[in-house]
Amino acid sequence: MKTALIMEGGAMRGMFTCGVIDVFMENGITFDGAAGISAGAGFGCNIKSRQIGRPIRYNKKYCRDPRYCSIRSLLKTGDLFGADFCYRELPEILDPFDSKTFAENPMAFYAGATDVETGKCEYHLFTDGKGEDMLWFRATASMPMVSRPVPIGGHEYLDGGISDAVPYAFMEQQGYDRNVIVLTQPGGYRKNPNTSALMKLFLRRYPKIREAMEHRHEMYNREMDDLDRMEAEKTALVIRPPEALGISHTTKDPDELERVYQIGRKEAEKRLPEVRQWLGGTV
């Protein structure tokens, strides 16, 4: 039996995931592996570095800082979320990411990003949380239209959620068969088609990304149907918000971030006995 934690993205809905993983860490819940997409990777990586409270702390502190996320950053750099600030200054200086603990923790950690040439999701196995790993953190969370593609190893990548919303199938392929899956939308949520003419205009240079975006709702809804089936058949344990979180992707309200974080904590605390039984193979 191999256990895994699998985390959906969703920008600041990821504060729900932060609440969940903090409760896990506080209660000694561990996994053999973990995988995240977008914010699920950028925030979820703190379970491997064992830094309780780090993402909610720095998000509340810097959410109003224009270097972190702003139209000014988008116009100046091409990235709504400032790349240098988010992936260098913040993790190296302002609220250091514990790359030493991250590297020493035996839990495998993966994140997926979408190759702009193929429109397919590619996965990276992290090693030390620095260098190329940090590029993958940036790539998996680089939302189309408001981010530049991230060059890595001769390829360019954007948000993993374009092509794979929840990486459960990938983790099953790696041999993980006892999985806890954290979603950031409530039960029954399904995406509608994206018919934005603006999206098509912005993505004209990246036809495979545009195609993936046009079919993203089909991919997402198919995955949600799979997860509903897996949950009913007890082949996965799914933790999700009890209702729509109602938080903006780019909120600058620390109270909103705290509100969603506390919902995540509450759900995780409620499910702790079930999670322990699941990971122990008794459910």
Structural description of this entry:
With 283 residues, the protein is α/β, with parallel strands linked by helices. It contains twelve helices and eight strands. It has helices at residues 14-26, 39-42, 54-62, 71-77, 83-94, 99-104, 132-140, 168-173, 197-202, 207-214, 216-232, 254-279, and strands at 3-7, 33-37, 108-115, 121-125, 150-152, 155-159, 178-182, 237-239. Strands 1, 2, 3, 4, 5, 6, 7 and 8 form an eight-stranded mixed beta sheet that branches. β1 (3-7), α1 (14-26) and β2 (33-37) form a beta-alpha-beta unit. α1 packs across α12 (254-279) and α3 (54-62) runs antiparallel to α12 (254-279). The longest helix has 26 residues, at 254-279. The protein is globular. It starts with a strand and ends with a helix. The mean pLDDT is 97.
Q: Helix coverage percent of residues?
A: 40-55%
Low-pLDDT ranges: none
Order of helices and strands: EHEHHHHHEEHEEHEHHHEH
What's the oligomerization state? single chain
Number of strands: 8
Q: What would you call the shape? A: globular
> What value does the Rg take, in angstroms?
18 Å
Query: pLDDT average, as an integer?
Result: 97
